[in-house]
Amino acid sequence: SFVSATSSAMRDMESNYQKIFALRAKLIATIQGQVSDVRLNSPLEGEILPGIANIEFPSTESDSMLLLFDAEGIACSTGSACSAGVQEASHVLLAMGRSQTQARSSLRFSLGISNTESEIEYLGACIRRVIDRARDAYRG
Q: Is 82 a catalytic residue?
C-alpha cells in the first residue's frame, strides 16, 4: 500500500542520512588529519546537508586542485551544483565573508549513499600529494 511504501521510504531516508553524515565526518577528519591548515567553510553539524563539505586549502588554486584530484580519480567541484562550469569564485563563500583568495582555494566534496569508507580512505592516501603539488603550482 501507499502508506507502507511511504513508511519504508522514510525509514530508508533516515538510515541513508545517518550513513552519509557519518561518511562526511570521516571525510572531514581524514582531510584534517592529512592537511593541518585546512579551513571548513561548512559547519560540522546543525542544519546542514549531510553529504556536502566545502573546505579551503590555503595557498592553492581550486582549478589546479580539481585537475590533480581528477588525475587521481577523485571527483570534487569548485562551487555549488547550480554553478557548474562557472570559473568565478563561489558567490556563496563570498557572501559568507570569505575573500576572493579564500573562495578560489576552496573545494566542495559531495557524498551520497553509494559512497564508501574505502573511497574516503583512498582520498586520504592521495590528498597530501595533491595539495603539495597544488601548492607548488600556486607558488610558481
A: yes
